[in-house]
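Write out a record, focusing on structure:
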Amino acid sequence: MTRSPDLLAYAARCYEQAGDYAEAARCHEEAGHPLKAAELWEQAGDPERAAGLWRRARRPGRAAACLLSARRFEAAAECFEQGGDLLSAGWTLVTRTRSYATAEHLFAAAQPRTAGERLRRRLGRQLAAALAYGEREALLRTLAAVPERIGTLTPARERAEAEAWAVTAADHIRRPDLGALVFAASYRAGVSGCADRWQQWAARTLGDTTGVPTGPAPPDPGTDQGPSEGP
């Protein structure tokens, strides 16, 4: 017997309150609530099933995120591409698979609109060349220039993404010294969460966090703080 959507939604709420996210997801899926079902499948630890629902709901970015967590990297790249995010599609392939030629094709087809996107496209194409053909010189030059450029990127999200891509590229060619320089510049630029990411990277990559800051950067003493109060 077919259950009514109202009864299914009520059952889903009961299951969710009890912590049974899988059953709650099934009820919402049967009731015709794919977005809520997708969220609950994520909570239930089934990102692939969630990805299928996000994809059918035309949310390719959310589907790609789920597939990344499930280590379905090529499928995630397909979702990014379907959503028009060719940079993320290419980056997924170049950093998580050996599909360097396909990644290069995606980077070539991308149409970056901001300085940050242009920088990330360059990093992606040059990393693909470095990994596929051993051509590292162009990538090394770009990575060396990132510390000077990162603070000029806007909006703030662009600085965080440039940091992540540059550090990952440096890791792939085994140049942690360049990754550390990028983190230092990002920290000085006040990129949100940089200190935590730097700490985690240093522990994972270097096995030592000595000298890595643990809090936000202090304000630049040369910055105009406004008129001072009188005595």
